[in-house]
């Protein structure tokens, strides 16, 4: 296991990049602690696979360094980085048995037979595949094949990091939750440093202790699942995480007060002194409620999703989503929207520009 440090990392697929637009990965500085569970989350093309390939040694970055426990491995090939990688599609040998597949990474490194037998038994028990150890891999279902592929990545106990590149993409939806739970359990038991790449927020938030959210080659926020939900640092994070995502509404600021469609909106706290650029108000639907007074709106859509109702209402030309429990209005109803102040934030050019209210200290 290792602490992984990325310093001033940038990468371009152009031999002579002219500007930021030519970089698939803009400047990245990260520290991943030994034994942590991390996720790289973002849409296709955001740079997460490029970053994973740089960490694994499949790509040499245009600029910057990769350190494993302080040792510079930037130019080392993959076989000298002591890593394990699990790919989107299962990488196993169909002609081998499950036992032989799990043992292969250890045999390949000259590990003694007794240790191999012990490690294979431990991993098989963790993955719940003990009863199929002597079956040929060719006859396994897709989810069991991916389990074996994961097991091949986990069977070594000397790796610096285990990396997962969209490992559940080919798995049937009803089986994904089971493998996600199993992977989290495995991390808690083996304590390897793990990095999980995905575009699926559910996978990232259920697996990782810390999630790195990426957009257009940039890291826009790093935090726990709770931190990303409770206080998005960027409107992209608020929109990408959550279902439905955060309401992002056009705003004006006059004399330190934020306005939406001419209505004053109370924010979580004071606005940063300088807010150049486009300003917007961000509030999650969970913190929008229907009230007797507030911002006038007209209900445009009502969706019962089982646990609650999602109400969409129009304020002028702008849609605002609200999550409601209990009786819901009907389409066309006139309502008033109330924004929970401590969950209402101002953003300037996408980045958070309001500050939390200072809590009064106890007398």
Automatic annotation (TrEMBL):
Its EC number is 3.6.3.20. Coiled coil: none annotated. Keywords: ATP-binding, Cell membrane, Hydrolase, Membrane, Nucleotide-binding, Transport. GO terms for cellular component: ATP-binding cassette (ABC) transporter complex, substrate-binding subunit-containing. CDD domains: ABC_Carb_Solutes_like. Belongs to the ABC transporter superfamily. One of its GO terms (molecular function) is ABC-type ferric iron transporter activity. It comes from Shimia marina. The keyword rRNA-binding does not apply. This is sn-glycerol-3-phosphate import ATP-binding protein UgpC. Pfam families: ABC_tran, TOBE_2. It comes from the Bacteria. Residues 4-241 form the ABC transporter domain. PROSITE patterns: ABC_TRANSPORTER_2 (PS50893). The keyword ATP-binding applies.
